[in-house]
Amino acid sequence: MERAGQLLARITAVTGSSIIGQLLIGWLLADLIGGFLHWVEDRVLTEDMPLLGAAIVRPNRRHHREPLAFTAGSFLDRNLSTFIAAGAVSLVWAMLLGPSLIWAAATLGGAIQSIVHGLAHQPKAAVGPLRVLQETGLIQSPKHHARHHRPPSDGRYCILTDWLNPSLDAIGFWTSLERALLRLGFRPSLGER
Prior knowledge:
single chain; 193 residues; mainly alpha; 9 helices
């Protein structure tokens, strides 16, 4: 009986670790996908593009000129495009790969990125548990995000956590993407904010 208890404890520990690991992978994947989409908004799309220009690019560029501008709109104004993008990616993922803990965490992380981004711009709004999550970097802190708004504003595109940006920026991930665009004949909208 004692051996059965030890075996059960081992299985539970592995399962618990596996669950935490899967949730963390999904959360960081949402941060990376969101960071990539943010980079595309900042560096690839232009304000004169049909549909996306007025709906996504123009408010994003305004946000870089006036960082608190997007916090003044309604909840739906600030979050609807993020909810739609996260929902679309989540639906395709679920149809192709099926639901999983990674999928659930990525969907949640993707859906709340604009909310987390807003909290990074309004430090006094994050109290209690939200403040703890910012201090651990599980959601982005104001201090971490502020570096994205300082010239040359060419990094810190991931807005869900504090964890991916330092590594991505250090290895030149975003710069490499921009060089790849140039090789393909596309001119990134560098600094056109």
